[in-house]
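User: Teach me something about this protein's shape.
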Amino acid sequence: MISAPEAMELLKSGNAEFMAAMQRDGGSVEITVPESGEVPVQKPHTVILSCADSRVPPEVIFQQGCGQLFVQRVAGHVVDDHMHESILFGCDGLGSRLVLVLGHRDCGAVKATLALSDPDADEIPFLDRVRQQIRPALHNCEEAYLQSSGAARNDVINEAVACHVQATVEQVKAFSFVETEGLQIVGAVFDIASGEVIFLD
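Assistant: First, the predicted structure itself:
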């Protein structure tokens, strides 16, 4: 079994490789795959709860191959009963000792949630339940959002993303894990522009 600190180092080193690839001309990445016809053992070192955004593929940005990550993806990385059970299975059933809640900058679900506080915002016909679940975590960001524009508003959105990640981390920490020894639950934010994953304290 890989410990949580060891898993964290694998994620950080993999992300460094991904950032280096982004900076290369025609940057490309390679991820380890199993031999043809081989069924690899499923022993993921990390459970990841990530936003479903198509620009945030965890296996790619962490350079982790088949069988190394147990990934749950949904818009806004919100937790419902199914995600709850799946995360518990990844830890208690498959042995992962690290759970990472992965948000990202320019998150459409977060921006749409903040827009709920703006009476002049256009109506958004999607993600209603997701936005209602995110909104309590963004309460302290709403006034700053309404009073800002341009780059300052982007800063508020990025702060709101971090707030939502931290709130989700606290939700996961409240789960009733069977085995808690050595278990770590952390949050991070992916910067789509730079490729960097910023781990939150």
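Now, about its shape. The mean pLDDT is 93. The helical segments are 4-23, 58-61, 81-93, 108-115, 128-134, 142-146, 150-173. If you'd like, I can walk through any region in more detail.
User: That's plenty for now, thanks!
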